[in-house]
Amino acid sequence: MMKLDPKIPAGPLETKWDRHRFSEKLVSPNNKRNITVIVVGTGLAGASAASTLGQLGYQVECFCFHDSPRRAHSIAAQGGINAAKNYQDDGDSVARLFYDTIKGGDFRSREANVYRLAQVSAQIIDQCVALGIPFAREYGGQLANRSFGGVQVSRTFYCRGQTGQQLLLGAYSALCWQIERGQVTMHPRTEMLDLIVIDGQARGIVVRDLVTGRVSIQTAHAVVLATGGYSNVYYLSTNASGSNVTATYRAWKQGAAFANPCFMQIHPTAIPPGDEHQAKLTLMSESLRNDGRLWVPKMAADHRPPGDIPAEERDYFLERRYPRFGNLAPRDIASRAVKTVCDEGHGVGPGGQGVYLDFADVIERQGQDVVQERYGNLFDMYNRITGEDAYQVPMRIYPAPHYTMGGLWVDYNLMSTIPGLFVIGEANFADHGANRLGASSLMQGLADGYFILPYTIGHYLATAKLSPVREDHKESRAALQRVTGRISRLLNAKGRRTAASFHREVGKFLWDHCGMSRNKAGLELVLRSIPALREEFWRNVVVPGSGEAFNQELEYAGRVADYLEFAELLCHDALHREESCGAHFREEHQTADGEPTRDDTCFAHVAAWEYREHAVPILHKEPLAFEFVQPTTRSYR
Amino acid sequence: MKFTLKIWRQKSPEEKGRFVTYEAHDVGSGMSFLEMLDGVNQGLIAKGEEPVAFEQDCREGICGSCSLVINGIPHGPDRGMATCQLYMRRFPDGAVITIEPWRARAFPIIKDLVVDRRALDRVMQAGGYVSVNTGGAVDGNVLLIEKDQAETAMDAASCIGCGACVAACKNASAMLFVAAKVSHLALLPQGKPERTRRVKTMLDAMDREGFGSCGNQYECEAVCPKRISVRFIATLNREYLRAGVVESGLPAEPESPHAESA
What is the mean pLDDT of residues B19-39? Predict the structure, then answer.
């Protein structure tokens, strides 16, 4: 029977983390070199954790499926990273960052975790500066800030529109140092395909060398997953095509609880989908909403060119519905408003899936030069993709799956329900609740990797009884067999349909029924339909080539197989949560004017799901107690 | 639109490669170059044939995975973009397009259009970092950095590590890649303490990995998806010269072996 103990330290919020760190046991320096830790994934969380653990003296085995650790998808984050530095003296503080984050998450995250995140945020900036990250500066030489994503203070640090890239290259450089020192052994082009649990503890992983195809066992004293989110279950998302759910999903099947899988962020400003060959949705930075105005024609199915539609026949729907925040309403709210107007037939562009993001007013007010200076690279990017000039005609945008707040359940120490299995970054569920604010994912990834995990894993390693394990332990062999069995099943199906066709089908299905808004009938329809699709997959998929060689289609088919199972878990969670909160909108639970209604009496909990073979997963609830803040209705009107 | 593709196919590093011709039909002008290749591959897979192996990931020009030489030019005909940002409307209908992998001694071919670029990681491991521990960093505003200096450092730091500069260079030199990292860190106060050592160890590593030397033809800059300037190669050369001068001084005395027991 699974038990959820969040292990939140008692006492005042402000001192929980300090007191907790002091009460933790340390591993003596001499022993560290005899301890091996596996880190899977080299994004912000993984690279910062692996480098810090290496620096502390552990032997780190680090894995990524890319050709280089520097390519992890953190690299694509554009906007910035939040920190409660209060350099602008505009009223920011740890308490305010904490409150903004917990409110932005619609009161579905743990107070203690979020407070700690806000506390370490300032340290992250100092660390990144020390690593040589070229943050934007003022003329006086101080660090520059901008405001971002529905908050009233300026606390976002940035490197042009490439903040994720610079932070990741910083963490990668720290990793390079530890590789050079021999503390970290890097295994690029190596994919984790299963978890090895021995005597109830995570003791290793099964990996496939993507160049030779060799499958092997890696054992260790603890395993850290930093394998990112699962937005690609929707097929079209803003994520890199390699991002996938496999590592966390396989860990779930070995006993790690999966928390709040239905909390998934849909970003409002992506370029709308075009034809069916499209492989990804490209994000246009949220910063565009600082100056662009969103509108649709008031008349449904109005096919006039935008320039021919006079002002009084335009509906500036965000400004109309949310006069206080207008076009800067938070992501979940803006996305839903876009969907609503499109569903009512006002959408523009192919298939009516799009709304205008119009810069005409700001260009008239401040001139094209100013707009060009601010957003030139984004306008160029838009032009390259769509062939349209956004200085002349408004951009068209549509929401796209972007980030997953859900993930493997972890306690305050970032340990999953499997002792010795730690989960950090987007892969865990912890800090963003039901909706993430802009510029908070980079903060959380680095907080986990640089400043939290290295402490908490030490206590586990110092106190757990860890007997030596051999590679040919029966659990290791069983895990290896699971992996090789799946690979040969994929190769031997020899059917007629490509893995991508299944992926597209399940993704479309989820997007239609478990996307920006959900209802009982739709979710039940998905749950009824997926088993047949999965059955067809295993019978009719075609994967050419061999398992003992470089085979990209085999890698991909394995990930699609996991999406076809994971989609069900997503829908079970969405079905159980009979409320609308954050990014999760159940049509049954809304006010007369379409605003979400949250239910704190029945759903102020984390939903953590336990895997059962061939059966509906078991739901466990971790109640969320709010000792320090009072949950309020999140109103942006 | 339709296109004739001449694609380099090579089963493994040991086997000989060759060009194979494929037809791409029903290509929309709004499709990206990689989506066009996806379409060709879907057709091959459905027939049970092995698809063309190529690398891609973020598809928005920042991860540095994509690495195709298109009609003889790394990342294709347009400046300042990676292959994934190239769209088919750029090509005339019916065009013949040649697609090859990066070709350089330091980048052995793994399969088809996929090459092994770990040499670049090893160059970075030789010194492309500031050796600071996690924790204990001073406040980010303690060291002021001139805005222009920070911007120039950012120009250099924009490198996505794709290796197009190497593929474009007839000497297969990685000078622009190394120059970007050396300049980025040399421009910032945080990078200063290791400045002298870094430039030497990184250039040594570059030579060791089999990259050639710079021939001053600027082809690297022309194909760089981030438009990194060859001026940074000049900075690299100055840094290298400086390191030679600085290092010719007296070495510091090593610590006395008895110091610790005192």
Answer: 95
Please answer yes or no on whether A240 and B132 come within 8 Å at the CB atom.
no
A468's CB contacts (< 8 A; 6+ apart) are none
Domain end call among A365, A400, A435? A400
**CATH code, domain carrying A301:** 3.90.700.10
Please give the Cα distance from A261 to A574 (Å, whole number).
Answer: 8
Helix A111-130 with A94-104: angle, nearest 10 deg:
120
Residue A275: what pLDDT? 75
A471, pLDDT greater than 90? no
CB atoms near residue B140 (< 10 Å) = 24
Instruction: Look up residue A498 and give its amino acid.
Output: T
Rg (CA), chain B: 22
What is the greatest pairwise CA distance in chain A?
A: 75
Predicted confidence (pLDDT) per residue in B198-208, tens digit = 999 999 999 99
Q: Which residue out of A85, A238, A280, A380 would a mutagenesis test of the B interface target, given it has the greatest number of B Cβ atoms within 10 Å?
A: A280
pTM: 0.97
- Number of domains observed in the structure of chain A: 2
Average pLDDT over residues B94-119: 98
Sign of the C-alpha dihedral computed for residues A404, A125, A71 and A398 taken in this order: positive
How many CB pairs below 8 Å do chains A and B form together? 216
The DSSP element (H or E) to which A609 belongs, if any, is: strand A605-610
The pLDDT of residue A29 is 93
Which chain B residue's Cα is nearest to A278? Answer: B35
Which residue among A127, A131, A553 sits closest to B45, beta carbon to beta carbon? A553
Assembly ipTM: 0.95
Q: Which residue has the tokens 């966390």?
A: A248
Among A368, A400, A432, identify where a domain stops: A400
Suggest the residue from B134, B198, B209 to mutate for an interface test with chain A (most A CBs closer than 10 A). Answer: B134
Alpha-carbon gap, residue B79 to A169, rounded angstroms:
24
What's the pLDDT band for A381 if we cut at 50, 70, 90? Answer: confident
Name the band, by pLDDT with cuts 50, 70 and 90, for residue A161.
confident
Q: How far is A624 from chain B (nearest CA, A)?
A: 31
Domain of A495?
1-74+170-263+405-628
Q: For residues B207 and B199, is the Cβ–Cβ distance under 8 A?
A: no
Q: Do A67 and B118 touch (CB under 8 A)?
A: yes
A349 Cβ contact list (under 8 Å, min separation 6): A272, A396
Nearest CA in chain B to A283: B60
Q: What is the pLDDT of residues A63-102, one digit of tens each?
A: 999 999 999 999 999 889 999 999 999 999 999 999 999 9
Same domain, A468 and A567: yes
Determine whether the interchain pair B190/A386 forms a contact, defined as Cβ–Cβ distance below 8 Å: no
User: In angstroms, rounded to a whole number, what is the distance separating the alpha carbons of residues A166 and A265?
Assistant: 23
Q: What is the pLDDT of residue B258?
A: 63
- Report the chain B residue with the minimal C-alpha distance to residue A241: B57
Verify whether the Cβ–Cβ distance B188 to A134 is below 8 Å. yes
Q: Are residues A577 and A489 in the same domain?
A: yes
**Average pLDDT, integer, range A251-263:** 98
Are B137 and A130 a contacting pair at CB < 8 A? yes
Cross-chain Cβ contact A139/B147 below 8 Å: yes
A231 CB-side CA count, 13 A: 25
Same domain? For A219 and A342 the reply is no
Question: Which residue segments constitute the domains of chain B, with CATH numbers given?
Answer: 3-111 (3.10.20.30), 118-131+141-247 (1.10.1060.10)
pLDDT for res B248: 67
Task: Say yes or no: A391 and A423 in one domain.
Answer: no
* CB contact (8 A) between residue B130 and residue A139: no
Is residue B262's pLDDT more than 60?
A: no
Q: Same structural domain for residues A466 and A604?
A: yes
Q: Which two tokens stand for residue A89?
A: 């003296």
